[in-house]
Amino acid sequence: MLSFISRRLLISIPTLIVISLVIFLLLNLAPNDPMAQVPLTVPPEVKQKMREALGLGQPLYIQFLKWLIQFFWIEPQVFIDYLFDTSFSEGKQRVISWQTRSPVMDIIVQRMPQTLWVVGMSYVVGILIAIPIGIYSAYKQYSVFDQVGTFVTMIGYSVPPFFTGVFVIVIFSVQLGWLPSIYDTTHSVVDWETFKIQLKQMVMPVMVLALQTTAMINRFMRATMLDNLNQDYVRTARAKGLSEWTVVMIHVLRNSMIPVITVIALNVPAIFGGAIITEQVFKVNGIGQQLIGAIYANDLPTVQTITFMFAVLIVLFNLLADIIYGILDPRIRYD
């Protein structure tokens, strides 16, 4: 297993470099101008000096190599300095946001907790709801529970989060007045009362994101359970006198979880993508709102860094899914 993980990590390096190159070229070849936000009263020679200060006068390959060094070499040094109070990155140029003129990773670190509060909680809630529903729907196929679950799942899978977000705001905030419509990112949890306020403002964004997660994972869970319930090994286990709980929850569930693990792992970056829209609807000051603001401001370093981090998540969770395969199915061997 260790040799497999090492090989996959080594393969991931050129894969990520190619992905970063594609992202860089797409952003730089797009018809955008970071000086478009500058007032028209600014003289052209001043604009030209501003372009040179941002490094826009350099060839594309120089800009790309510079970003690679900053992201893969200097930023890890900054992290090491933070952990061990060293000075490896002192005086070195980091990835700087054109919009705020501050390090991009510092802004991401500041906003990440808000995104993780919403995205992480919604994903956990969605998985905890989807797996039991999928198991029971498959076991009680065509029952009332299965039909209602299928109907709700199709709605959750089809309705986009920007519509669901506005809908729950109208119902629970405007009509009923139960929950706040705007997420207060300055709120800090210090006691039970502030914790209840935090839960209240998290309910709607978490509910919107969890609905999509539940819909997707529930359908896969039900389909794989149905496929395995009709296999010969299930009939053999029942013929041997094993209890129905043991047959379903140990033998069938373990084999059914293998494709579901892929969906869960690969859906992590997708849920971050859904959070971009949800953060805009509920005014969550997280990574998604930072990305949208950077796109509007033509802040290419910020857009490139956040987009590349999503690509890193995809590669890492692909590896995690392969590792969990070997744990769930002893027949799978990587060495």
Relevant terms:
335 residues; mainly alpha; MetI-like fold; 11 helices; globular
Q: How would you characterize the overall build of this protein?
A:
The protein has 335 residues and is mostly helical. It has a domain at 111-296: Orthogonal Bundle (MetI-like fold). It has eleven helices and no strands. α6 crosses α9 (244-282), α7 (192-229) crosses α9 (244-282) and α9 (244-282) packs across α10. The protein starts with a helix and ends in a 7-residue tail after the last helix.
Largest sheet: none
SS content category: mainly alpha
The pLDDT mean sits at 81
Residue share in helix: over 70%
What's the multimeric state? single chain
The CATH H-level superfamily of the domain at 111-296 is MetI-like
CATH topology of the domain at 111-296: MetI-like fold
Rg of Cα set: 24 Å
Number of strands: 0
Distance between the termini: 6 Å
Q: Strand share of the residues?
A: under 5%
CATH-defined architecture of the domain at 111-296: Orthogonal Bundle
**Which ranges are low-confidence, i.e. pLDDT below 50, for 5 or more consecutive residues?**
none
The first-level CATH class name of the domain at 111-296: Mainly Alpha
Shape: globular
Give the ordered list of helices and strands. Answer: HHHHHHHHHHH
Number of contiguous helices: 11
